Amino acid sequence: MHDTAGKPSPITTPTQSPMAAAEPGTGPADDEDETDVIGDLMGHYGKWQLLMTVLLSLFQVPNTFHISSSVYQAANKEFWCQRPPHLQQLPVDVWRNLSSSHDNCHMRAGIDWSQLSNETLPAQMEQQAASAAAADSANDGKLIACNSWEYATDDNVGNTWTSQWDLVCDKEHLKNVAEMFFLLGVATGGIISGYLSDKFGRKTMLFISAVLQTIFGLWLYFCSSFELYLTLRALLGLVSVSVTYSGLILAIEYVDGKWRTIAGMYNLFPLPISYMIISGLAYLTQDYQSLQLCIGIPGIFLCFLWFVVPESPRWLLVKGRIEEVRRIIEAAAVFNGRQLPPDYQLTPPTQESSSQDFTYLFRSSYLRRISICFLCIWFTMNLVYYGIILNMSSFGGNVYLNSALAGLVEIPAIAVAMYIITKVGKKWLFCATLFCAGAACCCAAITEGREDMLWLKITFLMMGKFTISAGNTIMPVYTAELYPTAIRNVGVGACNVAAGLALILTPYLSLLNKIEGHLLMTLLTAWSIFGGFVVLFLPETAVRKNAPSATNRQNAAKQV
């Protein structure tokens, strides 16, 4: 959910470079060279921008909590058909044998369990049960479906969706449906959030979405109806993705030039920390409702940032709200220790045509190539990234420790990706992350099913998580850089459709292990390698060390 799918493109302001206003299809955007009058006045990056972007990154915390909560709230539990009230002290294994409930979904029919007691010896109980079954010749050997179940209480999982609503046997698929509803909301919100943010403002959409996210998150704590729970999960996903994208674009529009890439990438740092925090909360609470309360409360405090965080000055300038822009620039300049010229002028820029639609992505050979490639890559990246995160409970070992480690390895992954892409082009690094993720998943698949090599499997999974996290950091930046500014919003919005399809499929990946133990990791391996090959068809981006000359700009325009 923290990809920049559906985000509005940065505002074009009067003094941007000519490449920023290039016609669709002329070549990659050149945002890292774009500066404007607002940045010149209040500073391209200073203490004010640092403070605001750090505050905005905090909105990633509840988003990460909500998207990863299903790992713990929907965790599988050991269960068995409910024992009669007077046999509650009977050992579970003995009860399973007596009732022939080997699949934990069916039990013997026609047995009068009142004839048995807890004090009866197991051999005698088996004989009595067999005699009772034989006496009822009509039901001899028949099994009936259980209508109630009991659950293990010493499994370090606690009360989950499974035990709350008996999501076992023929209802087990509803756990995946609950997660799919959330991710369906994420996919839908990603498509519409860019339009709403452009229309109503970044700050307005951010805080409306944050308030709704908090309301829905806390409502889930009190919800006892599974049908209502599904609806609230879908709405929660819808507004959570709007919080992500509105906050991200607001952070990007506080800066300009090369700082846009850096601000966009370090906006992701709270994600891995949040993964570690929620694994600790889940371990301490071991109850899906208590966990929901813990992850819903932080949103209350974030809503008070309304009085601290201003609207995007670049969006306000486009809308002609000059006085508001002046107040923000003056406050930022004072905070950054900059002296403003006494007679500076602000002129609303000429807005680019917004008539571009999906068909513009295929109107030139350059756009056709990058659009088809990015549709495949965004699908692959989301399938593999969330396929690892949301199936952590099915990989074996301690789910809390595994999830915390998965968050821990993402911190250096983001940092390394941020550093390297400032030194080399993004194409080969991006390609390498996907191939390395595929190799790690392949090694994990080889060790699948071998309990003595569980530690090695988890090691390979963490290596895969490290590399795919680095790729996930690069992907939105690379995408935005290759699309020309005039069509970037349409391009990234189309990519979000592919990402949404992957998100909807992700909850069902765990079912592959029930077909064949190696199937899940094999699938992730294949998609990672496929994504790496697709990246090879994309153009490289330039490594900007100095301001480009006019000749360099002309050469960039010939990359089609």
Topology:
Blueprint lengths: L36 H6 L4 H11 L2 H9 L1 H4 L5 E3 L10 H8 L6 E3 L13 H14 L7 E3 L3 E3 L9 H5 L7 H28 L1 H21 L3 H28 L5 H8 L3 H16 L2 H9 L1 H5 L10 H6 L3 H15 L28 H25 L9 H22 L5 H21 L7 H29 L2 H21 L6 H4 L3 H17 L14 H8 L3
Antiparallel strand pairs: 1-4, 2-3
Question: How does this structure look, described?
Answer:
The protein is mostly helical. It has two domains: about 35-60 and about 170-350, Growth Hormone, Chain: A (Up-down Bundle), CATH 1.20.1250.20; about 355-540, Growth Hormone, Chain: A. Helices cover about 60% and strands about 0% of the residues. It has helices spanning about 35-40, 45-55, 60-70, 70-75, 90-100, 120-135, 160-165, 175-200, 200-220, 225-255, 260-265, 270-285, 290-295, 300, 315-320, 320-335, 365-390, 400-420, 425-445, 455-480, 485-505, 510-515, 520-535, 550-555; strands at about 80, 105-110, 145, 150. A two-stranded antiparallel ribbon has the order 1-4. Strands 2-3 form a two-stranded antiparallel ribbon. Helix 17 runs antiparallel to helix 23 and helix 18 (about 400-420) packs parallel to helix 20.
Distance between the termini: 31 Å
Task: Tell me the β content.
Answer: under 5%
H-E string: HHHHEHEHEEHHHHHHHHHHHHHHHHHH
Largest sheet: 2 strands, antiparallel
Shape: elongated
Helicity level, as a percent range? 55-70%
- Low-confidence residue ranges: 3-26, 543-560
Rg, alpha carbons: 27 Å
CATH class of the largest domain: Mainly Alpha
Please tell me the overall pLDDT. Answer: 79
Number of DSSP helices? 24
- Strand order in the largest sheet: 1-4
Superfamily (CATH H level) name of the largest domain: MFS general substrate transporter like domains
**Level-2 CATH architecture of the largest domain:** Up-down Bundle
Number of domains: 2
Structural class: mainly alpha
